[in-house]
């Protein structure tokens, strides 16, 4: 009837007026700057128009235009407030930690890959997993065990690169680092390597499946209708197949361990978790053991391999300060000589650590991040954040921000880390900060310093293209799209 039609018309006009420049559902706000959006859909068209591998650059450009806090709106997610400031980061990730969560939307998008593991969950679920995992990392002997694994797997890389050097071949160093970190993780997590370095020229099924899932999951974060898209394109079937490969692998190892028991002197991650209790005082379920181990592999494999790749790029690119590499090589030879690296010696190699962290400042393996506000909040600069709004920060943009790092922010200068006063984790958030800070920072640092020591002690490297910055792939982490082709020579 006419009255209903009239009421509907008025309602539509009201909605169109209310959401004239924001996505439907996002609270319209005049107190915060950002690009004007379209009625009902907000800024979604602009966002989708940004090439996925240019998100970091785009975000840095927007901060230059709008300052340290700006926002946009998209359907389903609502308002996303972006910031680029250590004080705000400290507030969001530390001071007012409980006011922000990863949220159900993220959990839903990534559940195929992360299940109910530590990375994906919030609140009580996260708290007890964090407590358990933190305990495992401080178990006596775990550090020694892991550094022995790094040396053992690193030696395989040295043997392989020796052959490549003798053949005069060009090699993708990033791929070698992926194999090294995955095999090391296999040993550390499950007491068995994935075998990538035993036959480095061949693909390993687990790694290939894992990589495809990673890409599929990342693409979901940009697409509210991903279920439909994946069904239409058949990606859903591929994801199911890949998930089965990854999950069967992990469950197979867990079941075998249950049947055969464990009698090695050093416990791997799986055994440490199997010997622990859940928050209900009972042993962990198979499902939880699988999620925990897979979350650790996800956390540590790509991040560390990429950090190594970007560091090798920065150390060899044409614009590098020529004094850095000789200083690093000299520290390696004076600390190690010809002996095998040990945890204690590696921890003393401060210049090697500085080279790694300086690289992570410019190329953080996790370049962007986002949380959902679950309690209204006010930031130190006065910005109001309402429940349901998302907040996002960009370690990539923060590392290049002159207001944070000074006019030479874009220069690779490990000396920044040698002054005795380390930058706070809010200024350098490559490993996150606050209660959810990375549990594997020491692990990753020792792993990276081990492999770089072994490699620089035996080889020299030459980039095939030292003048061009490698392109990134669209992904949760900063992968080089075409790898890092290098020529390797034996050091004379
Ligand atoms: C260069 C290497 C690494 C970088 C740059 C890095 C960075 C990060 C970042 C940014 C987070 C926060 C992610 C988020 O919650 O959104 C994180 C969390 C985490 N990382 Fe790392 N990570 C590295 C290596 C590792 C390694 C080797 C391990 C394991 C041995 C590890 C274990 C974890 C775990 C368990 C968490 C989750 C902590 C929690 O939610 O309470 N990471 N890492």
Automatic annotation (TrEMBL):
Q: Which GO terms describe its biological process?
A: lipid metabolic process
The protein's required cofactors? heme
Residues bound to heme are 438
Signal listed as a keyword: yes
Q: Does the keyword RNA-binding apply?
A: no
**PROSITE patterns for the chain:** CYTOCHROME_P450 (PS00086)
Q: What UniProt keywords apply to this chain's record, in alphabetical order?
A: Heme, Iron, Metal-binding, Monooxygenase, Oxidoreductase, Signal
Question: What GO MF annotations does this protein's record show?
Answer: heme binding; iron ion binding; monooxygenase activity; oxidoreductase activity, acting on paired donors, with incorporation or reduction of molecular oxygen
UniProt-listed PANTHER family? CYTOCHROME P450
Q: Which family does it belong to?
A: Belongs to the cytochrome P450 family.
* Listed name of the protein: Cytochrome P450
Q: Which organism is it from?
A: Podila minutissima
């Amino acid at each position: 009837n006419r009255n209903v039609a009239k009421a509907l018309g008025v309602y539509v006009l009201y909605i169109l007026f209310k959401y004239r420049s924001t996505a439907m559902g996002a609270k319209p706000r005049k107190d915060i700057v950002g690009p004007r959006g379209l009625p009902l859909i907000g800024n979604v068209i602009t966002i989708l128009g940004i090439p996925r591998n240019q998100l970091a650059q785009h975000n840095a450009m927007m901060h230059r235009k709008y300052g340290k806090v700006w926002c946009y709106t998209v359907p389903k997610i609502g308002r996303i407030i972006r910031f680029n400031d250590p004080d705000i980061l400290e507030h969001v990730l530390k001071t007012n930690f409980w006011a922000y969560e990863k949220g159900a939307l993220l959990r839903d998008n990534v559940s195929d890959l992360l299940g109910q593991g530590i990375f994906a969950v919030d609140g009580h679920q996260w708290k007890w997993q964090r407590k358990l995992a933190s305990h495992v990392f401080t178990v006596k002997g775990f550090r020694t065990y892991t550094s022995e694994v790094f040396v053992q797997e690193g030696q395989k890389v040295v043997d392989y690169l020796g052959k490549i050097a003798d053949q005069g071949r060009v090699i993708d160093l990033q791929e070698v680092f992926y194999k090294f970190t995955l095999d090391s993780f296999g040993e550390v997590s499950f007491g068995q390597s994935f075998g990538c370095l035993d036959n480095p020229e061949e693909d390993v099924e687990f790694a290939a499946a894992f990589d495809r899932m990673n890409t599929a999951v990342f693409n979901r974060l940009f697409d509210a209708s991903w279920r439909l898209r994946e069904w239409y394109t058949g990606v859903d079937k591929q994801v199911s197949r890949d998930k089965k490969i990854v999950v069967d692998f992990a469950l197979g190892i867990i079941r075998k361990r249950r049947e055969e028991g464990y009698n090695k002197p050093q416990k791997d991650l799986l055994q440490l978790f199997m010997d622990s209790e859940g928050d209900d005082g009972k042993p962990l379920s198979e499902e939880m053991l699988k999620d925990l181990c897979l979350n650790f592999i996800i956390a540590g494999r790509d991040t560390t391999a990429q950090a190594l790749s970007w560091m090798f790029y920065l150390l060899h690119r044409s614009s590098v300060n020529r004094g850095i590499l000789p200083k690093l090589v000299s520290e390696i030879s004076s600390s190690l000589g010809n002996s095998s690296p040990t945890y204690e010696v590696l921890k003393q190699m401060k210049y090697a650590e500085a080279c790694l962290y300086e690289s992570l400042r410019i190329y953080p393996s996790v370049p962007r991040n986002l949380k959902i506000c679950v309690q209204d909040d006010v930031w130190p600069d006065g910005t109001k954040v309402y429940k349901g709004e998302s907040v996002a920060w960009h370690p990539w943009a923060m590392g290049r921000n002159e207001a944070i790092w000074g006019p030479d922010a874009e220069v690779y200068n490990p000396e920044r880390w040698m002054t005795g006063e380390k930058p706070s984790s809010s200024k350098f958030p490559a490993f996150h900060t606050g209660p959810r800070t990375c549990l594997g920072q020491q692990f990753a640092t020792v792993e990276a310093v081990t492999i770089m020591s072994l490699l620089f002690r035996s080889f020299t490297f030459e980039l095939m293209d030292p003048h061009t910055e490698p392109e990134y792939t669209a992904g949760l982490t900063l992968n080089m799209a075409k790898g890092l082709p290098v020529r390797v020579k034996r050091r004379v």
